[in-house]
């Protein structure tokens, strides 16, 4: 997909299943993790039936958008290298994930002894 055309030929926006809806696609400041998961699940369900999902995902990646774009969350774009800014919340989630991995590795190591 030619990303130069995404804004110039943005007629695909009009075909999007989500047009006019913001609620499930963009989180609130200080959103709780459970709320975020439910919101993102709702957004992904809408994206799953969208005829312009590919264009939308490319747009979100190219313009480093926040929120759910083309069924892809901020965390998924960040993991894929398309979001380079690290918000405080994303940094905290990454730290927690590293801790869980570390604890799991330590417990597996102690079991194997």
What does the model show?
The protein has 113 residues and is mainly α. It has one domain (5-85). It is 54% helix and 0% strand. It contains 5 helices and no strands. The radius of gyration is 17 Å and the shape is elongated. The model has no long low-confidence stretch (mean pLDDT 82).
The domain count comes to 1
Task: Calculate the terminal CA-CA distance, rounded to whole Å.
Answer: 52 Å
**What letter string, H or E per element, gives the SSE order?**
HHHHH
> How much of the residues is beta strand, in percent?
under 5%
Bulk shape: elongated
According to DSSP, the number of beta strands is 0
- Which ranges are low-confidence, i.e. pLDDT below 50, for 5 or more consecutive residues? none
Structural class: mainly alpha
The percent of residues in helical segments reads 40-55%
Mean pLDDT: 82
Q: How large, in whole angstroms, is the Cα Rg?
A: 17 Å
Helical segment count: 5
Q: What is the makeup of the main sheet?
A: none
Task: Draw up the topology in text.
Elements lengths: L4 H4 L24 H16 L4 H10 L11 H6 L8 H25 L1
Structural features:
single chain, 113 residues, mainly alpha, elongated
In a few lines, what is going on in this structure?
The protein has 113 residues and is mainly α. It has five helices and no strands. 54% of the residues lie in helices and 0% in strands.
